Amino acid sequence: MIPRYQKILLALLLIASLGMGFKLWQLRDRAHKRLLAGETTAPTQAPQVAPAEQATLVAANDLDNSLLPQMHSLPLPADPGARARAVLGKLLDLYAATDSTHPVPGGAASVAQVFLLPVPGSKATGASADQLAVVNLTGTFAASHPSGLETESLTVLSICATIRANIPNVSEVRFLVDGQPRPTLAGHADLTRTYLTADVTPAEGNKP
Known about the structure:
2 domains; four-stranded mixed sheet; 6 strands; 5 helices; alpha+beta
């Protein structure tokens, strides 16, 4: 004989199971109806993509140690810091390509952030005020960069010149690696100094 309390417990469990089954069936039916009606939890609009614009990339050439401006069409955000990061990402993608004139691994992911700050003591105000660009490179990029004074200097100067070509009011550039100051890029090019973009922006085909 099954004790009475066990019969009651089994009956309650059976009722609970039937109730849960019915609830699950209702949920499945509602989801099916939403699908048929075209409802979805995805955004109703596609994410906005920055429009393509002409950007000037000042690319390095190891054959003659020159910096040569190149025109490229690429999506450029409106925010100046994001814009600077986008053009530098494209520049480093060129360096990571198999046919690069300045082979450096890493590509666009090597630029972690670019911060734009007002230059202390700048006489200009508003949109024309001089700005300092702080370029935060990744430690992986610095660790994998070819060592040598000329190749490191070309990378640094091409970054400075590319920023100036696309954001003209950037007059100074400083570098960080993984958010921290670093003495050199890969043993030679000085990363402790402030680079003046007016001094590193070449005329077409000129050596730095």
